[in-house]
Amino acid sequence: MNIKLKGTGVALITPFRNDDSVDFEALGRITEHVIQGGVDYIVAMGTTGESATLSAEERSAVVGYIVEKTAKRVPIVLGLGGNYTSQLVSTLKSTNFDGIDAILSVAPYYNKPNQKGLYIHYKTLASASPLPIILYNVPGRTGVNIAPETVLSLAGDFENIVGVKEASGNVMQIMKIIKDKPKNFLVISGDDGLTMPLIAAGAEGVISVTANAFPKETSEMVRMALKGNFNAASELHYKLLNFTESLFEDGSPGGVKAALEILKICSKFVRLPLASIDRATYTKIENLAKDIKKYA
Predict the structure, then answer these.
(1) How confident is the model at residue 43 (pLDDT cuts 50, 70, 90)?
(2) Which residues are catalytic?
(3) Residue 268 belongs to a domain
(4) Looking at residue 50, what DSSP letter applies?
(5) How far is the C-alpha of 183 from the C-alpha of 205, rounded, in Å?
(6) Is the pLDDT of residue 2 over 70?
(7) For the purposes of burial, counting CB atoms within 10 Å of the CB of 294, is it exposed (0-12), middle (13-18) or buried (19 or more)?
(8) Is the N or C terminus of the chain more exposed, i.e. has fewer CB atoms within 10 Å?
(9) Average pLDDT of span 132-160
(10) Mean pLDDT of the chain
(11) Can you tell me the distance from the alpha carbon of 91 to that of 57, in angstroms, rounded to the nearest whole number?
(12) What ranges in the chain are assigned the alpha helix state H?
């Protein structure tokens, strides 16, 4: 499992039509686009997939469709987190995980638990989960940071807690985890712009937003970095850097959905409370995407 989840994962978006319904035809195109682009695995129903705004029936249909279209060509990680631990345990026990290889579970949001609460939360999930779990630390969205000491305790105490997606943006914190983690525990970048330097520090890859639009360039950059070829990796890293930054200027996944519309893969529609990005940002993304395609 750890070997299969090294490299580039893509946090897959969920495309919508202008009537707010899920666009399954476009979802099929995106799935094929990222697989043909060389990603190593797909993350379904993460934050970038707007999972919080989909009904349980929609989430089940989207995941089933991704499993079908992927046809076991790459592993699939399912986003499954929440801030009500007992309810999440019930979901773990009732979910059909056919075709799913691991779970990505975001830190409990809004409640702002202390480190003891975070540890017990994930301990409870590990005891109930039939699949390996990847912790997801993104304090900018959840309001709580999983401290390195808590991550390392969980990594050492539970065999089925196999990695952490680190999106704190705190490089010192991430390096503390890399320094003391068990050998097979995965440290995965949750920030596209930090991926190359984090791999240089010992991380094993990325769960990427940018790879929705440019899977080939993102995957190749990660592969080169993992091989220690940082000359080639840095060229691709800096080729993508301004584009990646622009994707988050007016909200995510609005930025990457705009890029996918520009690339004629799906429409830019997001669900409330998200709104479409402004025109100036759209134009900026369009120009940066054209530059990347020009030198592809």
Answers:
(1) very high
(2) 136, 165
(3) no
(4) T
(5) 15
(6) no
(7) exposed
(8) C
(9) 97
(10) 96
(11) 13
(12) 24-36, 56-70, 85-94, 115-128, 139-142, 148-157, 171-180, 195-201, 215-226, 230-247, 254-262, 279-294
